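Supplementary material to the annual report.
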Amino acid sequence: MDTLEICYMSAGDLSKLVEKKEISPVEIIDAHLSRIEATEPMLNSFITLLADESRTAARQAEKDIQAGRYKGPLHGIPVGLKDLYNTAGVRTTSGSKIFDNFIPTEDCTVAAKFHQAGAILLGKLNLHQFAYGPTGENPDYGHMHNPWNLDMITGGSSGGSGSATAAGQCTITTGSDTGGSIRIPAALCGIVGLKPTYGLVSRHGLTALSWSLDHPGPMTRTVEDAAITMNIIAGYDPRDVASAKVDIPDYTSALTGDVRGLRIGIPKEYFEAPIDPQVRKAVQDAIDLLETMGAEVKEVSFPMFNQSQAISSAVLMAEASAYHRDLLEKDGHQLYEPVRQRLEAGLFITAADYLRAQQARTMLDEECRRLLDDVDLLAGPTEPVTAPELLAPKVLAGEQEIGVVGALTQYTRPYNINGFPAISVPCGFSDTGLPIGLQLAGKPFDELTVLRAAYAYERATDWHNRRPPL
Amino acid sequence: MASDKELSREEFDCLAEQLGISGDPAYIDELYSQVRGVFIGAKTVRDIDVSGVEPDMAFVPRVS
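Predicted assembly:
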């Protein structure tokens, strides 16, 4: 099989071939390492590449499978982890040279689950330093580049995960999403990014940004792969104080292709905010298609959407500054300047303002719960714009020029505040060939409905089959 | 710290010193601009009517 075809196959398809012994994990890993060698100088997706280690693991997987010890759909599948997921014996930098030599002795829960499932770790992926930024900037390990246009950002903070998945460097990657850090690079790089319900995937062993807003989750090229990954990584973990004790369904059971009767609400406030007309049209077309397929679509009102940036900023900045305060005092001068500035600016938030934001957060949560009494999902754009240029401070959203950070987090932050599940799926391309994402958000712990709608939409379109020009 | 009135440069410099923040003038200028943004955001949050709402962040003692 052509190596590029292997690199662009989904985990769902690859695993069928692996199980039938029609393809070997060694062949899969070699294909991906070749792809990485060819594309990495342009993309900068990786901080640490585990070429030898992944080849060794692939040989072992091949032996196990040949001996009848097949572990399931991730056995022999190449995975990349955002470099703030602790990995035993493999350095974990959090995107900063301060931790260039930090080698954890223990896997984080998610890494341990991937390992147990037989997945093969290809490497640790680049990120916005300490995950504190939505663009994918990192002067310590190099800025990340969008595979669809190398002059553009990947989005962040999980930028390396976005580029590696979109460019066929990894089959499955992970991100962590505090204000949109899974969904932003997913939308800008043209892949699927699922932010699960808060507490559904363990945060144990991940470098925190904001304890109450951090959500680990999968980044993949297909909705099926997101569901397959959730089957492995979701579940209660006593080592995470926020971990939820809930039953874990088979997430692939949601992949019916049927949206008949599904009620989808479109918050009118989404389209009153600054938005690129091409994004607006692509998202509207996607919603229209879902309606044609049998979903019931109606306009709803989500007034607190307009305060969500302020609420999220107060919580996130205060928590991030508290978490990183010792680092800031000791090694602040070594931080990327915009990251240091955000951390220092967070020190000016009073406890009273932080708690006021938490009160407002409760109100936003209640407002969304009321909305989701009448509909099953809320739909809209993931991003108001396509990928901006690298290091640009502002971006044009329609006729309005707005700050890049505010623009990129405009639609994603509400679902970090309330912790509801939200997915970004590709729903079109701009005239300049840059991807556009559709965001679907559901009720807490109702990933099944989110995945059901996303899968049905994906199956009815071919956006996910396009490949970047690399 | 964060209040409804605009943060003057003098007030900012004083607070920054108390927080142990230092840097070259260009850095501090940029930080001042950011902190003014933080104050504007805090004012937006303060303007939300949260009467009778308890923040949903209860600490539940674990059973040991």
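Chain A has 16 helices and 13 strands.
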